[in-house]
Specification:
With 344 residues, the chain is an alpha+beta fold. 46% of the residues lie in helices and 11% in strands. It folds into two domains: 231 residues, 2-Layer Sandwich (Alpha-Beta Plaits), CATH 3.30.70; 80 residues, no CATH class.
Length: 344
């Protein structure tokens, strides 16, 4: 299956999830969790994100963020690499901490923002120990398991209200929110009234799903693995995609022709291809300079583990050949005007 497109647009909402490699824990204790929250707050400042929610589980985390600039990929790389480096140093380990790329879905704020927020905050409840593992939820959806009992509901609500490592408590009014978390945009989707009234309504909205045992996954309705929202919104985003911006970026950065590679290496070496093509050992040095291997179709393939992502494979490639081939900048940034956020 092809990887979903990575869509970077300004002024949009994203649900982001990143999981530990081989589903291993990325948070060992509370110190790890506090440090991740500090990094998240720094990322919000550096990349001008608006954070609309988060939850930390043992082996993964979820974020609901809004980007003021088209910099989601850049910011997530910063966040995950900084935390992974700190985690590895603290726990004396080596190697990658996260499993592959982060997952991101573009969210229609009006159509799906509230539902995605509830799904995010229900993560601590959707666990096997509370009778809401995957098999139990499937049995409930199929009608083989009845609604939860009173005692079971109370255990689930207690877990939801007392779980410290999510933004639910701030949305529900149980604690003060961190400075970098914005709650009013989500609360405004649940109705009007004062902040405390909307927080009460949000508590009831989330608790209703717990009491009824309804744990719908809104991402089962994701379109093309990257969009979730109203039909008209999805169609508008799909039209933007068909305009070729993301596809153009992939073509121009991901498929470099044989001629371009040869010309770039000629300039770097100060020689012509015919003069060094058969020289012993030059194939290895050419590969080291470019960070690329060539496929049978004559296009460049990333051999550093990053897939067909242009000449971004190795650090040496970024320092040498990449500026030569990327002389013409490509912009895929979308724009959208937005209003200021209102704090409670």
């Amino acid at each position: 299956m092809a990887r979903p497109l990575r869509i970077d647009r300004s002024g949009e909402w994203y649900h982001v999830m990143s999981r530990g490699i081989e589903r291993r824990d990325i948070f060992v204790d509370d110190r790890d969790r506090w440090r991740w929250l500090e990094f998240a707050g720094e990322a919000r400042e550096v990349f001008r994100w608006v954070a609309h929610g988060y939850v930390l589980m043992s082996n993964h985390y979820h974020l609901l963020i809004e980007t003021r600039e088209a910099n989601l990929s850049e910011g997530m790389q910063w966040l995950n690499s900084h935390y992974a480096g700190w985690f590895n140093r603290r726990h004396e380990r080596a190697g990658p901490l996260f499993q592959g790329r982060f997952k991101a879905v573009l969210v229609d704020r009006i159509g799906s923002g509230l539902e995605v927020s509830r799904y995010l905050h229900l993560n601590p409840v959707r666990v096997m120990s509370l009778g809401l593992g995957k098999q139990a939820r499937a049995a409930m959806e199929s009608g083989f398991k009845g609604p939860p009992g009173k005692e079971e509901i109370q255990r689930r609500l207690g877990r939801l209200r007392n779980y410290r490592w999510s933004s639910y408590r701030a949305f529900a009014g149980y604690c003060r929110k961190p400075d970098w978390l914005e709650i009013d945009s989500v609360l405004s989707l649940i109705g009007e009234g004062k902040c405390q009234q909307r927080q009460l309504a949000y508590r009831q909205y989330v608790a209703e799903a717990v009491r009824e045992g309804v744990m719908d996954n809104p991402f089962e309705r994701t379109v093309d693995q990257v969009l979730i929202g109203r039909t008209e919104w999805v169609e508008r985003m799909a039209k933007w995609l068909r305009g070729g911006r993301e596809q153009k970026l992939r073509r121009e950065l991901g498929r470099v022709s044989w001629r371009e590679i040869v010309e770039a290496i000629d300039r770097l070496k100060g020689e012509q291809w015919k003069d060094y093509a058969d020289r012993y050992g030059d194939w290895g040095r050419v590969g080291d300079v470019s960070g690329q291997a060539l496929g049978p179709d004559g296009t460049a393939r990333d051999r550093s583990g990053g897939g067909r992502d242009g000449l971004r494979g190795g650090e040496r490639g970024r320092r040498s050949i990449w500026p030569t081939l990327a002389a013409r900048p490509v912009s895929t940034k979308g724009t959208r005007e937005g209003g200021e956020n209102i704090e409670c």
